[in-house]
Fold this protein.
Amino acid sequence: MGLERTTLFIGLTRPQMFAGVTYSFFVFNAIIAAEFFLIFKSLWALALAIAVHLVGMLLCLREPRIFDLWLTRVSRCPRVRNYSRWQCNSYSP
């Protein structure tokens, strides 16, 4: 017997979404696009923001929390000294 999913459960556990991505990613993308626009004074910053947004939408289709999970992994799982030997975080010599 498989695990059943209901629409209500998915809706209650999904993070706040805006335009297909999480709200935090949307704000981050808007800030980066505004910075690029102010630095380069070109409308190509808008095209870059749209491209980054589309990539974010594709990543959020399967797992809406992909960016939150990635930030948690980066902040709480730093690389150990012997990463180059094992190609992973292994604490054995």
Observations:
- The radius of gyration is 18 Å.
